[in-house]
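Schema walk-through. Below, the input block comes first and the output block second. Nothing else is stored per chain. Lengths vary across the set, and this one has 320 residues.
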Amino acid sequence: MRSPKKKPFSHSRVNSKFKVTNWSEYNDFLRRRGRIDFMISENLCDGWYEDDHLNKKPGRQKIYSEQAIIHVLKIRYLFGLKLRQTQGFLDWIFKMVDLAIKCPDYTTLSKRGKKLKIKLEAINNNEEVSYVYMDSSGIQTYTGNEWLENKHRKRHNRRTWKKIHLVVNDNGLIAANSTTDHNVDDRAQVGELLTNINTKEFLADPGYDGEDMYQLLRSKGIKPTIRPPNRPAESKMDHLKTERDIEVEYQQHKGYQAWRVKNKYGRREISENTFFRFKGSFGSRFLSRGIENMRNKITIKCQLLNKMFQIGKPISIRTG
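--- output ---
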């Protein structure tokens, strides 16, 4: 039996409508997202090969730089190509524009891709942002067991998932990311992902609730805005109540809608929109099998998503 649909938080959101005011510019932004020079690099030839490849003996295979491998993987994930298709696509482009470079073969891309130590490019240069959001979502890994076990009428095991954690700043850009197993606690990633982020406030859902989270964020000088649990707060003396206890009691007495309006918790919906854009642009499953390739793949996709957002975004206003 399906669970009943949740009621809206307020009646004003039932019939709310929005209108995009920059359709002509936004159409141009969407066209630019398909151009390699906008999304990847203005000059792919720079640093394509290692500096010492010219000094090697004749007949030896040329060695590609890490920058070349990253550029090829970006193009692969941008257009959703397989490794062999990516090699053929780039070789054709280089031939058409008379570039004196060659795309690495698919085996080189597979082997070199898992050895890369890719980190998300800095987007704010350690400048302080007003607030950040953090959330996680599951991505299905590639396995053929479900189809085989279903074919032979065997009970298949639970699907294998990986969990991606994203930190989104107040501008809607991804500031940090990580990839873990599906059974890893979301709170275990907060300290690591907030290391190089300078922010005033941290917003998250009840999955990040806990007294240790409040203490960790306050030690970094960050205000925690985490939705309290629905269960009643433990009865304590006023001088023993912590910041989390006060928030739990406020929601218990006033209701979630009052707590939501007081803390402007609706700002966290941008993180949900980020996951929607991520899965809508790149899908919700891994094709890579190695954990190193999975982590690098997510980081590259986050860079591409930030680039799409920086090229241009729709500007909408509420009309009703």
